[in-house]
Amino acid sequence: MKTVKDIMTKDCATVTTKDNVYEIAVKMKQFDTGFIPVVENNKLIGVVTDRDIVIRGLAEKREGSAKVELVMTTDIQCIEPSTSMEEAAKLMAQHQVRRLPVCDNGNFVGVVSIGDLAVNNNSDEAAGRALSSISVNQNPSGLG
């Protein structure tokens, strides 16, 4: 059985608490991602999504120089590299997220996404169920 370690993205863009909102947005553009882990001394302390920047940054009229801590999400689910793909899909559905940071003994080592699960033949069904659950629960009206 394949695990998260087999399919996760290992070379992820990250930021630290020394970065600001503008620098995060530039990194998101540069790496074509909407999800940036916040890492200090190899430890995951939070994540910033493009939605975080909009909701906690722009909508609250924060400047681009605003600190990472003002927009980052700290209540995050992290999984071990040995987690099965099926379990990762279940956690994504349960927590209504499309990406999960992967930590090995507390050290950030990568990210697994719903896309990683979907492109793997053994997990198409699990990824489909997770994405369906996430999409329905995040957007019950079917709009946007």
From TrEMBL:
SMART domains: CBS. The keyword Transcription does not apply. Keywords: CBS domain. Coiled coil: none annotated. Pfam families: CBS. InterPro entries: CBS_dom (IPR000644), CBS_dom_sf (IPR046342), Diverse_CBS-Domain (IPR051257). Residues 8-63, 72-131 form the CBS domain. This is CBS domain-containing protein. It comes from Paenibacillus chartarius.
